[in-house]
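Write out the 3D structure for:
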Amino acid sequence: MKVPRGERQRSQHQGTRRRGTERAPRGSRSTPTEAELIGVLTREFASVDGAAHVALGIGDDAACVRFSGNLVVSVDGQIEGTHFRREWLGLDDVGYRSFQAAISDLAAMGASPVAAVAHLTLPERFSTAELRRLTRGQAEAAQATSCPVVGGNLSRGPELTVVTTVLGKATRCLSRSGARPGDELWLLGEVGLARAGLELLSASTPVRSVATRRAVSAWRRPRALLDAGRGLVGKAHACLDVSDGLARDARNLAVASGVRVEIHAEALGAALSIDLGKAARTLGVSPLWLACEGGEDYALLAAGPSRRRPAEAKVIGAVRAGDGAHWVEAGGSKPLTGGFDHFSGQ
């Protein structure tokens, strides 16, 4: 298994089954009604803070949200068998990570969350208890990001699917198209750990050390860097979140900005966590490979002038005139390849 986001879950290995994810045999429970399911959703999301912007929430034909400033909107979908497997994580983790993945796009824009809506496609015999666990994870992520869930939709389908649309506000939006020659390339947050966690699960590797537990947690429970994203406003010329691997997202930055983006091997190596190095040794791979090929870390990759660099930003490269993303080390440079593409499966 080599792809980081989604398709890599198609490994032949079954991995470690999480407690509480065993499915009941066919016919062992009745199918809940739509009203019962909506009742579960309403109760689970009722306690989420951040509802000051909400005039009308769950229960009406549409939500009504009070708003001022620039509206920032993003959507993210998570499909069972493509983005996750329930053998490797609990339903609360599915809800949590799907919500944080959507919120991370707001972080990359320097925005603050205001509200979210979620569409859930539930397979047959998906019980109210299972829905409660799923929405509990969503509510936990909503609480952590002060982003109330104000509505959504329910349907039946062959696979469990969670689609989250988030609304945010920003006085000034960051974009991936503003990098300039002479900028530094900044990394905020960690890269590679989520990929390491997924590799550990797919290979059924025992998870005993602090480093391997952190890696698995990074994949199961990612965290959008909202504060870091807002802190880049007025400092960074460009920003995007690292969801498809550092290599691919560096190329995305280069294409959007029309510049040459360089990742310096020595600088990136110094920026990686000690735990990533330990997890990489357990797997028998390079931590640099995990960082570049990985995904779903939801770190931020930004470009900006050295005089405006935030304290938490690590310099991992540079922006120059030219095009494409390049890997630079002592022996020279080469085009940077790798990362995940949803449609090529690589």
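The domain at 184-335 is CATH 3.90.650.10 (Phosphoribosyl-aminoimidazole Synthetase; Chain A, domain 2).
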